[in-house]
Amino acid sequence: MSPADAKAMQIQNNISQKTNAMTKQIEIMERQAVQYKNEARAALQAGNKTLAAAKLKQAKVVTTQAAQQRNMLNNVNTINMATQNAANAKEIAQLMKQSAAVLSTVGISIDDIEDLMDEVSEKMDEVDQIMDTLA
Fold first, then answer.
1. pLDDT digits (tens, 9 = 90+) for 50-67
2. Closest CA to 82 of 4, 11, 3, 6
3. With left for phi above 0 and alpha for psi between -120 and 50, is residue 47 left, alpha or beta?
4. Which terminus, N or C, of the chain has the lesser number of Cβ atoms within 10 Å?
5. What angle do CA 76, 82, 88 make, to 5 degrees?
6. Whether the Cβ atoms of residue 30 and residue 66 lie closer than 8 Å to each other
7. Residue 81 above 90 pLDDT?
8. Which pLDDT does position 69 carry in this prediction?
9. CB within 8 Å of 80: residues ≥ 6 apart
10. Of residues 42 and 83, which shows the higher confidence score?
11. For residue 63, what pLDDT is reported?
């Protein structure tokens, strides 16, 4: 593994860890927003409109923060996919290069292949004639 590949793998691991942490953080925020809404509902039922309004405001702030975190997470995931696609493209290009090198060293020409196919076809015709004779 080249140093560049090792660095890319390390970056992928870091991105994965960060996305996991961000996902957990978003889940916590979303649960907190639900809790604030429930508290607002309970305060409203108890007749405390001021507390209910404050809890709804807290829920809105947390919901907005969660949405911002989700947008950042989407951006990180997009970058991660682009990085993976670039790594895959690099590997495919290397494989194509290696394949081209192998094909160029084989030393078989199209004429050799055509001659071989003609020879195989003649042998198949001979086998068919033998089968017809035996039948």
1. 999 999 999 999 999 999
2. 11
3. left
4. C
5. 135
6. yes
7. no
8. 96
9. 12, 15, 16, 19
10. 42
11. 97
- Beta-carbon contacts of 78 under 8 Å, excluding residues fewer than 6 positions away, are none
C-alpha 54/C-alpha 6 separation (Å) is: 50
Residue 84's pLDDT is 84
In the block, tokens 């709804």 appear at 56
Burial of 45 (0-12, 13-18, 19+ CB in 10 A): exposed
Instruction: Give residue 103's identity as a one-letter amino acid code.
Output: L
Model pLDDT for residues 93-134, shown as the tens digit of each residue: 888 888 878 877 777 777 888 888 999 999 898 888 988 888
Q: Which residue has the tokens 């084989």?
A: 106
CA distance 9 to 3: 10
Q: Are 15 and 80 in contact (CB under 8 A)?
A: yes
Find the length of the chain.
135
- Tokens encoding 110: 């199209």
Say if CB 22 and CB 76 are below 8 A apart.
Answer: yes
Work out whether the CA dihedral 68, 70, 74, 77 comes out positive or negative: positive
